[in-house]
Amino acid sequence: MSLADVQEPKNSSGSLTSPENRLTAPMNTSFILSPSRQFSYEDGPVPSLPTPRYVRVRIVATGLCGSDVRIARCGLHPITLGHESAGIVDACGSDVKGLSVGDRVALEPGVGCNTCETCRSGRYNLCESMQFAATPPYNGTLSTFYCLPEECCYKLPSHISFREGALVEPLSIAVHCCGLAGSLQGRSVAVFGAGPIGLLCCAVAQAFGAAKVVVIDAVAPRLSFATDFGADDVYMMEAGFPETNAQKVLEKAGLDAGFDVVIDATGAEPCINCGVAALKRGGVFVQAGLGSPNIAFPIGQICDKEATLKGSFRYGPGDYKLAIQLLESNRIQLDSLITHEFAFSNAEQAFQNVADRVGIKSLIFGPGIDRAFAEGRTEQHTRVSDLPRL
Ligand SMILES: [Zn+2]
Ligand SMILES: [Zn+2]
User: Fold this and answer.
1) Same-domain check for residues 186 and 278
2) Are 76 and 217 found together in one domain?
3) How many domains does the chain fold into?
4) For the chain, which ranges sit under pLDDT 50?
5) Ligand 2 centroid vs 118 CA: distance in angstroms?
6) Model pLDDT, residue 389
7) How far is the CA of 68 from the centre of ligand 1 (A)?
8) 191 & 75 share domain
9) Ligand 2 ion local residues (Cβ < 5 A)
10) 122 C-alpha to center of ligand 2: Å?
11) Cα dist. 71→83, 139, 215, 362 in Å?
């Protein structure tokens, strides 16, 4: 790869800006959502490190997901969007020990307070003071630069591209969900929802030793995608009673007693009700998806089956590390999940894609970054000096 392969950054009006003609200092360009729900680009100063323990990352690739679109629909204040990112360390504070300028990293985009009871008890994802990217009032990662403490940056294995690195965030969510289900060794697992989180839960459950993982959805192309992605079986949800769907999926999967584990990545009432009906007595139900906050739920069946019901929120200690290990050992492949890619100047189109549920995962490259650069894997091919000048 050479500099010639890399697009020069565009300014907010979308016209090309030659770095030679640019007399100002490097800028931090951000993709902003305004209270009137208008998307725009804004140039600001390059952020400085808030404490000596922080690093500054040049963002190379960012994935979009449903929660970005939810923020876009209910934004109250101008905010930078994005929270699934990978990039190159561009500056290190004086107390940073484990990272150097030029390291390729996946970002864990939430910083807990580290002092409250939940943080101190090891469940920092539940911290009430969590500063999470693109969660008002905190800005997201769809910028040229983003600053994080070093412990929130995880080095990418040398064979993992920045494009795949952006998906370590949703992969960590799947690792967290599957971890909450307990040991999956030899277990049967039903995953509702063949979107990114459902597919990643399927892959992680298999990597954790599940005997059979069945993916359930109501959209045929998503199910064929799930089959190609490695699901052991798939089932198409039908209109009608949850019990009827549950009976059919169990028959198709050849399971009489029900699934040991059900993971719902839809948040949809029909799926959740079918999942509880298809759950084995004594089984574990993990709720991963966030749909409507209130639904009609068959709590009686949870009692009758003495089932365990678990909510899942983002990721906690060890989840990113385990996600990286799954990539390092090639037990999880992410590349095929990336179905759409956009230049930073087309970020709005990526949001439309996700809102319309087009494809599986849409990626946005950082300002001035193109696909060839984001595809870079080894340090040798992605030196900081190769980065397009700003
Ligand atoms: Zn996400
Ligand atoms: Zn805390």
Assistant:
1) yes
2) no
3) 2
4) 1-24, 380
5) 6
6) 62
7) 7
8) no
9) 112-113, 116, 119, 127
10) 10
11) 11, 11, 28, 17
